[in-house]
Amino acid sequence: MQKKFLIGFALVFSVGVFAPGYLVYYMKTNPASIPTLIPYFIFGFPILIFVLVIGFNIWFRKGMSPSNKQNSYLLQNGEKASAKILTVEDTGITLDRLYLVIRITMQVMPTGRNPFSSILEIPVSRVQIPRPGDMVQVLFDPQNPQSIMLTQ
Fold first, then answer.
1. 137 — pLDDT class (breaks 50, 70, 90)
2. Is 83 in contact with 106 (CB distance < 8 Å)?
3. CA 10 distance to own-chain centroid
4. The predicted structure's pLDDT at residue 36
5. Mean pLDDT across the stretch 19-24?
6. 34 - beta bridge partners?
7. What is the rounded CA–CA span in Å between residue 77 and residue 101?
8. What pLDDT sits at residue 70?
9. How many CB atoms lie within 10 A of CB 120?
10. pLDDT at 65 over 60
11. Span of 55-59, 77-81, 92-96, 106-110 with lowest mean pLDDT
């Protein structure tokens, strides 16, 4: 996750800083090219930076969200269970200044099976952060109990 952020930041930073610097250098060495390069400064770089930032956000968030295949599989084949939240930890990741990505450790108590512990990282609203001791409903894969999702 952090590696993806650093790659995206390096890409946006390099385009936003080094490319204009190179154009300034090019204009100093070739003064006749100044009138043809001005539109790049006015229109090109802001558009390029905007596209890179939007693309980076989509790429980064795609890695953050749970897999749609896993969720649809759990919705079709998962077993329902109650779970008690044991710990809630902040991962330090914030999405849109509104959502925190938290790590929840929970004790899952399926009917007719032995309880087991599971860890889940999910984005939550800053005003709806679960607390240790809260009971939640989950779906889990019977063949792989660590594959789990919240249903409420």
1. very high
2. yes
3. 17
4. 73
5. 70
6. none
7. 26
8. 73
9. 20
10. no
11. 55-59
Q: Where are the strands (E) in 15-127, listed by range?
A: 79-95, 99-109, 116-125
With contact defined as beta carbons under 8 Å apart, do 99 and 64 qualify?
no
Locus of tokens 């309880």: 115
Question: How far is the CA of 93 from the CAs of 1, 85, 121, in angstroms?
Answer: 9, 20, 11
81 touches 136 (CB < 8 A): no
φ, ψ for residue 53, nearest 5 deg: -65, -45
Q: How far apart are CA 44 and CA 109, in angstroms?
A: 57
3-state secondary structure of 91: strand
Q: How far is CA 39 from the centre of its chain?
A: 35
Asked whether the beta carbons of 139 and 75 are under 8 A apart, the reply is: yes
Rounded to whole angstroms, the Cα distance separating 85 from 100 reads 17
The tokens describing 54, both together, are: 């939007």
Check residue 85 and give its pLDDT.
95
Across 142-151, average pLDDT: 86
Cα–Cα dist 86/20, whole Å: 51
Residue 109 near residue 81 (C-beta atoms within 8 A): yes
Residue 57 in this model has a pLDDT that exceeds 60: yes
